[in-house]
Amino acid sequence: MNDQLPQDDERALAERGAAPDTTIPIVVYVLHLAGMVTGGLTSLVGVVIAYVYRGKGPDWLDEHYRYQIRTFWIALLYFGISGLLTLVLIGFLTWLAAVVWLVIRCVKGLKALNEHRAPDNVDSWWV
């Protein structure tokens, strides 16, 4: 009887459809977070990965790639504006706000990914 259990488990997984691998989106979120330390270099790698894998999974997973791509471009804008505003000293505060925004956005994305659902407010410029 023990020999049949693995086959039964495999059959049950095949009938339900196995959950897609979420390793790549997790890596992209981590690369975005690491971008704060690397000056955005790893975030650039992450957005390239997101562009490559977009459209190759279920809709909820594709929404994560879309969310990650938007996160990259919006973060680039926020950090760019913060860089310009450092000339008038307020940029340090806006840079800190952008860091907090990025962390919250990535954590929300990772939480939704863990629950196998699309992230909330994909089109939002906020969190």
TrEMBL record:
Protein's cellular compartments: Membrane
Source domain of life: Bacteria
Segments crossing the lipid bilayer: 26-53, 73-104
Mode of membrane association: Multi-pass membrane protein
InterPro entries with a match to the protein in the record: MamF_MmsF
Keyword entries, A-Z: Membrane, Transmembrane, Transmembrane helix
Protein name: Putative membrane protein
Native source organism of the sequence: Halomonas ventosae
